[in-house]
Amino acid sequence: MIDYLIHTPVASVIFVFTIVTSIYAFSNHDLLAKFMLHPYSIHRGKGLYTILTSGLVHRDWGHLLFNMLTFYFFGFSLEAILVGVSAWGHLQFTLIYILGLVLSDVTTIVKHKDNGHYRSLGASGAICAVLFSYILFQPKDMLGIFMIIPMPAWLFGILFLFYCAWAAKNARDSINHDAHFFGALVGIVATLALHPWVFQHLLGQFF
Q1: 152 φ, ψ (degrees, to nearest 5)
Q2: 121 contacts: CB under 8 Å, gap ≥ 6
Q3: How far apart are the C-alpha atoms of 26 and 63, rounded to whole Å?
Protein backbone atom coordinates (compact mmCIF):
# COMPACT_ATOMS: atom_id res chain seq x y z
CA MET A 1 0.00 0.00 0.00
CA ILE A 2 2.79 2.41 0.96
CA ASP A 3 4.70 1.52 -2.20
CA TYR A 4 1.56 2.22 -4.24
CA LEU A 5 1.13 5.66 -2.65
CA ILE A 6 4.79 6.52 -3.17
CA HIS A 7 4.59 5.79 -6.90
CA THR A 8 1.14 7.19 -7.68
CA PRO A 9 1.15 10.34 -9.84
CA VAL A 10 -0.78 12.95 -7.89
CA ALA A 11 -1.04 15.95 -10.20
CA SER A 12 -3.21 14.11 -12.72
CA VAL A 13 -5.60 12.95 -9.98
CA ILE A 14 -5.95 16.47 -8.55
CA PHE A 15 -6.37 17.94 -12.03
CA VAL A 16 -9.15 15.59 -13.14
CA PHE A 17 -10.95 15.49 -9.78
CA THR A 18 -11.01 19.28 -9.45
CA ILE A 19 -12.37 19.76 -12.97
CA VAL A 20 -15.08 17.10 -12.53
CA THR A 21 -16.15 18.39 -9.11
CA SER A 22 -16.19 22.02 -10.23
CA ILE A 23 -18.23 21.32 -13.36
CA TYR A 24 -20.71 19.26 -11.37
CA ALA A 25 -21.03 22.05 -8.79
CA PHE A 26 -21.83 24.61 -11.52
CA SER A 27 -25.24 23.01 -11.87
CA ASN A 28 -25.62 21.87 -8.25
CA HIS A 29 -25.85 24.98 -6.13
CA ASP A 30 -26.49 23.00 -2.94
CA LEU A 31 -23.16 21.22 -3.32
CA LEU A 32 -21.43 24.48 -4.21
CA ALA A 33 -22.76 26.18 -1.09
CA LYS A 34 -21.85 23.17 1.06
CA PHE A 35 -18.26 23.05 -0.24
CA MET A 36 -17.46 26.78 -0.03
CA LEU A 37 -15.26 28.15 2.75
CA HIS A 38 -17.36 30.01 5.33
CA PRO A 39 -15.05 31.65 7.89
CA TYR A 40 -17.96 32.65 10.15
CA SER A 41 -18.96 29.00 10.62
CA ILE A 42 -15.40 27.69 10.86
CA HIS A 43 -14.57 30.15 13.63
CA ARG A 44 -17.50 28.66 15.52
CA GLY A 45 -16.36 25.08 15.00
CA LYS A 46 -18.62 24.20 12.09
CA GLY A 47 -17.86 23.20 8.51
CA LEU A 48 -14.15 22.60 9.11
CA TYR A 49 -14.14 20.25 6.11
CA THR A 50 -14.67 23.24 3.80
CA ILE A 51 -11.02 24.21 4.29
CA LEU A 52 -10.34 21.28 1.94
CA THR A 53 -13.54 21.10 -0.14
CA SER A 54 -13.42 24.80 -1.07
CA GLY A 55 -10.43 23.93 -3.25
CA LEU A 56 -12.50 21.44 -5.24
CA VAL A 57 -15.03 23.94 -6.59
CA HIS A 58 -14.79 27.16 -8.59
CA ARG A 59 -16.96 30.19 -9.19
CA ASP A 60 -17.36 29.87 -12.95
CA TRP A 61 -15.73 28.58 -16.12
CA GLY A 62 -13.22 31.45 -16.26
CA HIS A 63 -12.11 30.85 -12.68
CA LEU A 64 -11.74 27.11 -13.29
CA LEU A 65 -9.95 27.55 -16.62
CA PHE A 66 -7.38 30.00 -15.25
CA ASN A 67 -6.56 27.85 -12.22
CA MET A 68 -6.39 24.60 -14.15
CA LEU A 69 -4.23 26.05 -16.90
CA THR A 70 -1.78 27.30 -14.30
CA PHE A 71 -1.85 23.93 -12.57
CA TYR A 72 -1.39 22.09 -15.87
CA PHE A 73 1.69 24.10 -16.84
CA PHE A 74 3.41 24.00 -13.45
CA GLY A 75 1.86 21.22 -11.36
CA PHE A 76 2.87 18.35 -13.60
CA SER A 77 6.35 19.80 -14.08
CA LEU A 78 6.86 20.32 -10.35
CA GLU A 79 5.83 16.77 -9.55
CA ALA A 80 8.30 15.47 -12.15
CA ILE A 81 11.06 17.59 -10.60
CA LEU A 82 10.27 16.33 -7.08
CA VAL A 83 10.18 12.72 -8.26
CA GLY A 84 13.56 13.29 -9.91
CA VAL A 85 15.18 14.47 -6.68
CA SER A 86 13.43 12.23 -4.15
CA ALA A 87 11.91 8.76 -3.96
CA TRP A 88 9.08 10.45 -2.03
CA GLY A 89 8.45 13.05 -4.74
CA HIS A 90 4.78 12.22 -5.29
CA LEU A 91 4.02 12.48 -1.58
CA GLN A 92 6.03 15.70 -1.32
CA PHE A 93 3.97 17.20 -4.12
CA THR A 94 0.80 16.17 -2.28
CA LEU A 95 2.08 17.77 0.91
CA ILE A 96 2.91 21.07 -0.81
CA TYR A 97 -0.50 21.19 -2.48
CA ILE A 98 -2.51 20.36 0.65
CA LEU A 99 -0.49 22.69 2.88
CA GLY A 100 -0.97 25.46 0.32
CA LEU A 101 -4.70 24.81 0.23
CA VAL A 102 -5.20 24.67 3.99
CA LEU A 103 -2.74 27.25 5.32
CA SER A 104 -3.55 29.87 2.69
CA ASP A 105 -7.06 30.03 4.16
CA VAL A 106 -5.95 30.77 7.73
CA THR A 107 -5.73 34.53 7.31
CA THR A 108 -9.02 34.56 5.41
CA ILE A 109 -10.74 32.73 8.26
CA VAL A 110 -9.32 35.15 10.83
CA LYS A 111 -10.04 38.21 8.72
CA HIS A 112 -13.67 37.32 8.00
CA LYS A 113 -14.56 35.32 11.13
CA ASP A 114 -17.36 37.76 12.04
CA ASN A 115 -18.69 38.26 8.52
CA GLY A 116 -21.55 35.83 8.02
CA HIS A 117 -21.94 36.81 4.36
CA TYR A 118 -18.36 36.09 3.27
CA ARG A 119 -17.58 32.88 1.39
CA SER A 120 -14.56 31.79 -0.60
CA LEU A 121 -13.83 28.99 -3.06
CA GLY A 122 -11.21 27.84 -5.53
CA ALA A 123 -7.80 26.16 -5.49
CA SER A 124 -5.80 29.37 -5.94
CA GLY A 125 -3.89 29.09 -2.65
CA ALA A 126 -2.73 25.55 -3.42
CA ILE A 127 -1.87 26.43 -7.01
CA CYS A 128 0.18 29.42 -5.88
CA ALA A 129 2.07 27.07 -3.55
CA VAL A 130 2.80 24.79 -6.49
CA LEU A 131 3.80 27.68 -8.75
CA PHE A 132 6.24 29.20 -6.26
CA SER A 133 7.73 25.83 -5.44
CA TYR A 134 8.38 25.42 -9.16
CA ILE A 135 9.96 28.89 -9.34
CA LEU A 136 12.51 27.90 -6.68
CA PHE A 137 13.66 25.02 -8.89
CA GLN A 138 13.43 26.90 -12.20
CA PRO A 139 13.84 30.63 -11.43
CA LYS A 140 14.99 31.55 -14.93
CA ASP A 141 12.18 29.88 -16.84
CA MET A 142 10.31 32.35 -19.01
CA LEU A 143 6.64 32.66 -18.14
CA GLY A 144 4.05 34.02 -20.54
CA ILE A 145 2.08 36.50 -18.46
CA PHE A 146 -1.48 36.61 -19.80
CA MET A 147 -0.13 34.11 -22.36
CA ILE A 148 1.64 37.02 -24.08
CA ILE A 149 4.17 38.99 -22.01
CA PRO A 150 7.45 37.08 -21.46
CA MET A 151 8.94 37.39 -17.98
CA PRO A 152 11.51 35.35 -16.03
CA ALA A 153 9.90 33.30 -13.26
CA TRP A 154 11.91 34.94 -10.46
CA LEU A 155 10.78 38.43 -11.50
CA PHE A 156 7.18 37.33 -11.83
CA GLY A 157 7.37 35.84 -8.33
CA ILE A 158 8.59 39.08 -6.77
CA LEU A 159 6.05 41.25 -8.59
CA PHE A 160 3.25 38.82 -7.79
CA LEU A 161 3.96 38.86 -4.05
CA PHE A 162 4.11 42.67 -3.96
CA TYR A 163 0.88 42.92 -5.92
CA CYS A 164 -0.95 40.44 -3.69
CA ALA A 165 0.19 42.26 -0.55
CA TRP A 166 -1.04 45.56 -2.00
CA ALA A 167 -4.29 44.15 -3.39
CA ALA A 168 -5.18 42.41 -0.11
CA LYS A 169 -5.39 45.85 1.51
CA ASN A 170 -6.57 48.05 -1.34
CA ALA A 171 -8.40 46.06 -4.03
CA ARG A 172 -12.19 46.06 -3.99
CA ASP A 173 -12.76 42.95 -6.10
CA SER A 174 -13.96 39.44 -5.31
CA ILE A 175 -10.50 37.85 -5.49
CA ASN A 176 -8.99 36.37 -2.33
CA HIS A 177 -5.56 38.00 -2.60
CA ASP A 178 -4.64 36.85 0.91
CA ALA A 179 -4.95 33.22 -0.19
CA HIS A 180 -2.71 33.89 -3.20
CA PHE A 181 -0.04 35.58 -1.09
CA PHE A 182 0.05 33.06 1.73
CA GLY A 183 -0.28 30.12 -0.64
CA ALA A 184 2.86 31.34 -2.41
CA LEU A 185 4.71 31.67 0.91
CA VAL A 186 3.64 28.18 1.95
CA GLY A 187 5.01 26.80 -1.33
CA ILE A 188 8.37 28.51 -0.71
CA VAL A 189 8.69 27.46 2.94
CA ALA A 190 7.51 23.88 2.36
CA THR A 191 9.91 23.38 -0.54
CA LEU A 192 12.87 24.73 1.43
CA ALA A 193 11.92 22.55 4.40
CA LEU A 194 11.81 19.45 2.20
CA HIS A 195 14.89 20.36 0.15
CA PRO A 196 17.13 22.91 1.92
CA TRP A 197 19.66 22.65 -0.90
CA VAL A 198 17.20 24.46 -3.19
CA PHE A 199 18.18 27.78 -1.60
CA GLN A 200 21.81 27.30 -2.67
CA HIS A 201 20.57 26.15 -6.07
CA LEU A 202 18.51 29.34 -6.38
CA LEU A 203 21.46 31.57 -5.50
CA GLY A 204 23.65 29.66 -7.90
CA GLN A 205 21.40 30.68 -10.79
CA PHE A 206 22.41 34.30 -10.31
CA PHE A 207 25.87 34.36 -8.69
Answers
A1: -65, 145
A2: 32, 35, 36, 37, 54, 55, 57, 58, 59
A3: 12
Q: Do residues 71 and 55 lie in contact, with contact meaning Cβ atoms separated by under 8 Å?
A: no
Q: What are phi and psi of 186, to 5 degrees?
A: -60, -45
CB atoms within 10 A of CB 21: 19
128, 180 contact by CB (below 8 A): yes
Coil, helix or strand at residue 115:
coil
Stretch among 9-18, 19-28, 95-104, 168-177 having the lowest mean pLDDT: 168-177
N- to C-terminal Cα separation, the chain: 44
Do 82 and 137 contact (CB within 8 A), yes or no? no
**Cα 14 to Cα 127: distance, rounded to the nearest angstrom:** 11
pTM of the complete model? 0.92
Cα–Cα dist 70/86, whole Å: 24
**In sequence order, which residues have a C-beta less than 8 Å from that of residue 193 and are 6 or more positions away?**
none
